[in-house]
Request: fold
Amino acid sequence: MADIKVRFADGEEIIYENTPSSVTADEVIARAQKEFSGKQITSVEKMNPSSVVEQATTSKQPIPAKRSIPTINEMIAPTLDKLGGGETIVGDDFLRQLGLTGRYSAGAATALPEMVSDPFSNIINSIAGREVMTPIAKTRLRALDAMNLPKPQTPQERVVGDITQAGLSLAVPAGIAQKVQAVPQALKSLLLDAPSVQTASALAAPFLASSGREYGNVGEMGQMGLGILGSMSVGGMAGSAPRVGQAVSSAVKPFTDAGRDVIAGNVLRQLARNPDQAIEAGLAYKPSISGYSPTTAQATRDVGLVGAETTIRGLDQTGKFGAQIGAANKARMVILDRMGKDADALALAVTKRNEITKPLREQAFAQATVTPETFQSGVTLTANKVIDEILASPAGARGTVEDTMNWAKNELRRGTTPERMYEVRKDLRDAAQGLLRKEGSNFTAAKTQLEQVIRAVDDAIVSAAPGYRDYLRKYAQSSRGIERLEAAQNFRGKVLTTTPDPSNAGDYLISQPKFTTAIRNVRKDTQLSKTQVAVFEKIAKDLDDGVLNRAVKVPGSDTFKNLSTANIIGGIIGKQMYGEVSPGLMKLTGPINWLYNGTDDAIRELLVDAMLDPKLASRLMAVAKTTTLEPLSNELKRKALSLGYGATFGLE
Reply:
């Protein structure tokens, strides 16, 4: 029996009393992690049975959102305390540490064969779709597990394990190269030149990468970047340990949500012509029509953001811009359909009008008692007189007017009664509207003159049938809505393209050029109401805002311009992630140029979302204005300067 003390990162300790000797350290750790899931274990040690027992009194707490990263000295502090106090690591604790060392040593011994063979094995297995060749690393791990060698359990053990295995992996091949004469000279130079630099790099890379994994909550991309940077920050692990927490924090920022917000906001700020004004415009913007979210270019009308929209569209890999175009077209079509309705609605309105007005007309004609001779005499004094005056006017010198007036006078002879004259009037109306066709005639060219004749005919009918005036008034009132409905349907037909809307079956895309032309014509002459015209003008403005990128288009190849802008965006993002790198250091960072120039997928998606949401874009630009993002290269520069490599890398 023995007491076992478990120490946590916050300084608290608990003691398990009278623990059987058969209980291993792994079992103790597992129990402590289960009972205190919110705490980080730093050490486990056996105590003298007579030691004072201290019970844990602190309640369980959730894992903090941001955990500090222990330095190398902090990691090995428990062992140093034991050695300094004269204590000896004995029993299961000693065996566990010995087993872990054996696990790391096995990995070091097979490092070179794994490096040469495992990539080939993985390629073969990938091609075959199954495990044809077992990688050496996998075989090693299976063997170690079969031997029941302990595995690292805590974040601290995993970090120390990565560092230990990396150091041994360098030492074993170097020792072989130094002792064995058959090793080629090139390989010897690779393994033996500058041993202190190689050792420091080999330890720094796993230290930063695994620390970021265990304490910084970074993904694979972040671990890769930290590992590469660690391998370049040569020398002085002990000297750099106090600053490790800061280094990992800076390195992780670009790969976090908050870091991406700042990067995307800075991209938008640098693309914008006037960032602060764009922020205000985006926040204050109210869409002219509802039903969809306008783009940031529409809302801000910032020349820089408008010009960059086309390029950022190219970053969209999920069709978000296409969906926005479909939503915008649908919102505009909803308004057009509400204004013009459909053919059935128009036919119903016409039927309703006839049901109301027809009885009034028939009653007026039934009450007329005038003879055909008397009625024709009245037509001569009214309608024929108007025709003669038109023919005598300067307009009557036009051939189309003369032909149309002579045709109208001939038509009037057939209207011997008010009812028959009403039917003649229909032909005159159709002729004025271009609905009546007659070979060699162009009635619409004399539309103004025909309207004068129609009014004279109405006066002649009213003289014979006074109730006809009430019919005309009621008919005009009922026709006003129908005429506006017809005008709206005609307007809609003029502004649609022949391209179907892929997002909305049955709809067609609205043409901005056609809409602009139609709205200009409406302002000159239309049957539309002022309200309808105002609504259509709102749609016109919305369409105009949606094609602002055409206004900032400059001569030249679109492909070249888009690639150039994309490179600028990539450069902005890269410099924020990794900072400005001096020429000397750039040679050293050659292997990670792909990482420097590459754009994080999450940042690309965030930029696309921002260009489709003015409020989001404004928030990102505002955050970027007040938040500092420290790039990865800053820490690398500090390390290089502190280690005396400033002149080498051109930093001094």
Notes: Residues 368-465 form one domain. DSSP finds 31 helices and five strands in the chain. The two ends are 62 Å apart (CA to CA). The CA atoms of residues 39 and 66 lie 13 Å apart.
